[in-house]
Design a protein that fits this description.
- By secondary structure, this protein is an alpha+beta fold.
- It folds into 3 domains: 91 residues, Nuclear Transport Factor 2, Chain: A; 130 residues, Roll (Nuclear Transport Factor 2, Chain: A); 119 residues, Glucose Permease (Domain IIA).
- It is 23% helix and 37% strand.
- The chain has 8 helices and 23 strands.
- Strands 11, 14, 16, 17, 18, 20, 22 and 23 form an 8-stranded antiparallel β-sheet that branches. A 5-stranded antiparallel β-sheet has the order 1-2-3-4-5, with no helix packed on it.
- The site of zinc ion has 5 residues, from loops.
Length: 377
């Protein structure tokens, strides 16, 4: 009897909840398919396509960059119609599609919320470098990044058991899980008695203790230009438009017809028209890097599908696609994630002036922290 009464109470309770809880709705984790477009997604889900056609050119470029295998969260009603959808655009921003009480949809770009943790560790190698880093941190990408950072100064095969590694880094976390890419702030690898250091400056470029660049494989600026009209950002609040923006590259403004050159040696894997980017070239380089050159006026057809050298002529500056004036949009990606090209191309010779003074303060602070960890070990 008591059991039946309890069941009835429970059922009434659940019914009353139904109107505004997930009881009757379903949250779905959707993996963004290779080559999938926002337009196709809207169409498939019976969401008006005008949401796409009413976007401005910057938002259109941003949604063109949705990464294959991104995890989207979709809330559906009992009839499988979308109530809300969250689609990541990069590590900082997501597209939020929402249905209101009148069954009409709206779409906006919103920040992704996450925590940033400061982390550090010291290890004495007792296996292969990458295995030791992964077993200490659980982060495979961190081991890859460290090897990239130090590959010009250290032969990883020659590291010995007992050599020491100290790393200070920032790790993003979201819903309790690792999120996005980690950012190394300072790292030291001690091989025998010699200590190799690298430190990040404010922009995230790595230099040795003296503010010199150790990575000699830096990319070059792909063209002559009058001015940089837009820099790289994953998230910027636009106070006039009152919306979030991202810009996955650097814009170099100059006259139409200016020669565009390969920023680094590689293979031309795309030469054609690409949505809002207009006439576009993509070059694949060693180490998981790709460069993208957009809004071109024309191509140097001789290099179509070919291997090119650093600085080789590939095309001409223009204003094709969604563009407000002649400029080169230059994008750089690492493992299909857009990164700031300035990290790889500027300051090749090293830091100077105020930037250097600021950097040396970072060096002093973190050398102290590294020493302290070594003493404690
Ligand atoms: Zn641009």
């Amino acid at each position: 009897m008591i059991l039946i009464r309890w069941l009835i109470i429970s059922l009434v309770f659940l019914q009353s909840l139904q109107a505004y809880t997930l009881y009757d709705n379903r949250v779905e984790d959707k993996i963004w398919k290779s080559g999938e477009t926002l337009l196709a997604f809207l169409q498939e889900n019976l969401i008006p396509m005008k949401l796409y056609y009413e976007m401005d050119s910057e938002d259109e470029k941003l949604v063109g960059d949705i990464r294959f295998a991104s995890v989207c969260h979709i809330l559906r009603d009992a009839d499988y119609n979308v109530i809300q959808a969250l689609i990541p655009l990069n590590e900082e921003l997501q597209l939020h599609i929402i249905r209101d009480n009148n069954n009409s949809y709206s779409m906006s770009v919103e920040p992704i919320l996450y925590q940033v943790e400061d982390k550090s560790f010291l290890i004495s190698l007792d296996d292969v470098f990458s295995k030791d880093i992964v077993s200490k941190t659980g982060n495979f990408l961190l081991s890859v990044e460290l090897e990239q950072m130090f590959k010009k100064s250290i032969s990883f095969r020659k590291l010995r058991l007992g050599d020491k590694v100290v790393v200070f880094y920032e790790q993003k976390r979201r819903s309790g899980k690792f999120y996005g890419t980690q950012k190394v702030v300072a790292a030291m690898i001690q091989k025998g008695s010699k200590k190799h250091y690298l430190f990040a400056d404010k922009d995230g470029s790595y230099f040795d203790s003296f503010g010199k660049k150790t990575d000699t494989s830096s990319f070059i600026t792909p063209c002559r230009y009058k001015r940089v009209s837009s820099r790289f950002t994953n998230k910027r609040w636009h106070p006039i438009l009152k919306k979030y923006r991202a810009h996955h590259g650097i814009d170099y403004a100059g006259p139409t017809g200016t020669k565009i050159n390969a920023a680094y040696a590689g293979k031309v894997i795309f030469m054609g028209t690409k949505g809002g980017y207009g006439k576009t070239i993509i070059i694949r380089h060693a180490g998981g890097y790709k460069t993208l050159y957009a809004h071109l006026n024309g191509f140097n057809n001789a290099v179509r599908g070919a291997r090119v050298k650093t600085g080789q002529h590939i095309g001409y500056m223009g204003s094709t696609g969604r563009s407000t004036g002649p400029h080169l949009h230059f994008g750089l990606s690492l493992n299909d994630r857009w990164i700031n090209p300035e990290i790889k191309i500027v300051l090749k010779s090293g830091l100077s002036g105020a930037k250097k003074r600021e950097f040396l303060k970072i060096v002093k602070e973190y050398k102290g922290k590294i020493e302290k960890l070594l003493e404690e070990s």
